[in-house]
Amino acid sequence: MLKKSKNAVFVIDMQNDFVLPDLPGRYNTAHKVVPAIQNILEFAREKSWPVFHIVREYREDGSDIENTRLNDFISKGKAAVPGTFGCEIVKELKPVDGEYRIVKPRFSGFMGTELDFMLRRFGVENVIICGTQIPNCVRATAFDAVSYEYNVTVIEDAISAKSEEVAAANIIDMKNIGINFLTVNQLIQYDEDQKVA
Question: Does the N-terminal peptide bond of residue 133 adopt cis geometry, omega within 30 degrees of 0?
């Protein structure tokens, strides 16, 4: 039986290929936010909030990858191929029983997935987003969540981008459409029944 919850956590693309050194899709700063996301997961699990690990998978032949990433997929190494070590979620953030793995075909966790249906089944009103990387999947998912009428909070010290400048520019854009930003410490001050976003 599902436990209703107003709040849900999204952990985006924290897969080995995108986080660990020397793997094909690595984002330079993704590894730095692992401890912060661990703290978010610990808090969400204590509160029994639903947790969605939103990930990317690509067929090995590249037939389902975006045109904008196909050249890198071919030339730099195939990232996020199902069944490989690189496609797995980093060990520190592995899902526990009762958490959900959502495979997104593009940047947004909502596009072509069951995510919105599941959130509505839980009665979720507020989504809390962390992960990598800001200008792509974090931002696209946050924008779509706003479009689907969710209150959105992004955890500022639990997201990553290629540089501080890229992060800052995207954070301004997200704030301008009404997305809230908190630190991990600010998040954990809230009770489950309070509005996070």
Answer: yes
pLDDT digits (tens, 9 = 90+) for 152-175: 999 999 999 988 999 999 999 999
Share of the chain above pLDDT 90, in %: 77
Q: Are 8 and 119 in contact (CB under 8 A)?
A: yes
CB 147 within 8 A of CB 112: no
Q: What DSSP letter does each residue of 47-106 carry, written as one string?
A: HT--EEEEEE---TT-TTS-HHHHHHHHHT---S-TTSGGGSBPGGG---TT-EEEEESS
List, in order of start, the domains of the chain with CATH numbers: 7-187 (3.40.50.850)
CB 183 within 8 A of CB 33: no
The edge-to-edge listing of strands for the beta sheet with 51-56 is 100-104, 51-56, 7-12, 126-132, 151-160, 180-182
Look at residue 118 and give its three-state secondary structure: helix
How far is residue 196's CA from residue 177's CA, in Å, rounded to a whole number?
A: 16
- What is the token pair recorded at 38? 């661990």
